[in-house]
């Protein structure tokens, strides 16, 4: 399969018609080999316009939803970005082409080592992989962040993550309350976090971000 051509087709047929026009983002998604971040059995559909199920029960979210989130984040070359929910490393590799530093949270040591090996091979030397089995807590040790990106949907953004947005920083995520998912950006200005709805989106939920169940007697 001609993966270079597949990347170009993804950009021209899936992204550009939906107003994905940031030059840096377009270049990143044309260059990062998405097929390297999925099992061999899925490489033939790596550029399909759909979420790809992974062996660990997670997903690599569809290219358009990802591109919309990244474009909404308005990532700058000096930004420090925290990426949560990306077990493949693909999201981090795309963002690394735009940001100064990317911190990618992996769920365990095994997946972390695998990610480090692949990212080193691909030359993503401005990315750091950290281990946290509870991704909803973020990475407070290195907060605040200019951008926080959630690579999957959540019912609500945990307060701990909102606290890790720096002044002028942005958090982008798809909020899915069981009805229609909404891509949203949360922005901290003058110490206050506001939010804005950007687009409709349906992508798989992120493990570890489920709401606590409340029981009433």
Please give a structural write-up:
The N and C termini lie far apart (59 Å). The protein has helices at 3-15, 23-31, 63-73, 90-96, 109-121, 159-162; strands at 52-53, 59-60, 80-84, 101-106, 127-131, 145-154, 165-175, 182-189, 192-200. It is globular, with a radius of gyration of 16 Å. The protein has a single domain, classed as Vaccinia Virus protein VP39 (Rossmann fold). The protein is built from six helices and nine strands, in the order H-H-E-E-H-E-H-E-H-E-E-H-E-E-E. With 217 residues, the protein is of the alpha/beta class. The strands form two sheets. It has a seven-stranded mixed beta sheet with strand order 5-4-3-6-7-8-9, with helices on one face. The protein has a two-stranded antiparallel ribbon with strand order 1-2. 26% of the residues lie in helices and 27% in strands.
Please outline the helices and strands.
Layout (H helix, E strand, L loop, with lengths): L2 H13 L7 H9 L20 E2 L5 E2 L2 H11 L6 E5 L5 H7 L4 E6 L2 H13 L5 E5 L13 E10 L4 H4 L2 E11 L6 E8 L2 E9 L17
Parallel strand pairs: 3-4, 3-6, 4-5, 6-7
Antiparallel strand pairs: 1-2, 7-8, 8-9
Helix pairs in contact: 1-2
Average pLDDT taken over every residue: 93
Largest sheet: 7 strands, mixed
CATH topology: Rossmann fold
* Count of individual domains: 1
- Number of E-state strands: 9
User: How are the strands of the largest sheet arranged?
Assistant: 5-4-3-6-7-8-9
The CATH architecture would be 3-Layer(aba) Sandwich
Multimeric state = single chain
CATH superfamily: Vaccinia Virus protein VP39
- Compute the gyration radius: what is it? 16 Å
Distance between the termini: 59 Å
The number of distinct helices, counting runs of at least 4 residues, comes to 6
Q: List the helices and strands in order.
A: HHEEHEHEHEEHEEE
Q: How much of the residues is beta strand, in percent? A: 25-35%
Molecular shape = globular
């Amino acid at each position: 399969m001609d993966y270079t051509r597949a990347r170009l087709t993804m950009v021209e047929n899936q992204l550009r018609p939906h107003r994905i026009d940031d030059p840096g983002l377009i270049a990143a998604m044309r260059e990062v080999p998405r097929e390297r971040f999925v099992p061999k059995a899925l490489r033939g559909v790596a550029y399909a316009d759909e979420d790809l199920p992974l062996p660990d029960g997670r997903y690599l979210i569809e290219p358009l939803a990802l591109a919309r989130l990244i474009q909404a984040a308005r990532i700058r070359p000096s930004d420090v970005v925290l990426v949560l929910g990306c077990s493949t490393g693909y999201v981090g590799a795309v963002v690394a082409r735009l940001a100064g530093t990317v911190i990618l949270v992996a769920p365990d040591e095994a997946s972390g080592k695998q990610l480090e090996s692949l990212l080193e091979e691909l030359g993503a030397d401005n990315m750091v992989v950290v281990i946290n089995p509870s991704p909803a807590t973020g990475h407070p040790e290195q907060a605040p962040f200019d951008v926080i990106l959630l690579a999957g949907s959540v019912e609500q953004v945990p307060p701990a993550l909102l606290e890790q947005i720096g002044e002028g920083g942005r958090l982008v995520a798809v909020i899915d309350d069981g009805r229609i998912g909404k891509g949203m950006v949360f922005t901290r200005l003058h110490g206050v976090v506001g939010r804005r709805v950007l687009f409709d989106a349906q992508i798989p939920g992120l493990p570890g971000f489920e709401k606590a169940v409340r029981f009433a007697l």
